[in-house]
Design a protein that fits this description.
about 70 residues; two-stranded parallel ribbon; 2 helices; about 30% helix; USP_A; Rossmann-like_a/b/a_fold; Universal_stress_UspA
Length: about 70
């Protein structure tokens, strides 16, 4: 279901997920920080820290630099 949400993105998503009894929240990440702890944008960061359900942050494919490909 697609719904237009008004308000601050992070707060609105967390509130709506709670209202809808969501099982999980999926969100994209547009953060471009060089440090791993800053890889998320502010909205994703807010959702991760305020959600009562699991949050999956999807990073853009180009942000991966061969992690997990050790032989």
């Amino acid at each position: 279901e697609v719904k237009p949400l008004v308000g601050k993105p992070g707060e609105t998503v967390v509130h709506e997920a709670h209202e809808q009894n969501a099982d999980v929240i999926l969100c994209g990440s547009r953060g471009h920080g060089k440090l791993r702890r800053t890889f998320m944008g502010s909205v994703s960061d807010y959702i991760v820290h305020h959600s009562h359900v699991p949050v999956v942050v999807c990073r853009h494919k180009n942000h991966h630099h061969g992690h997990g490909h050790h032989h």
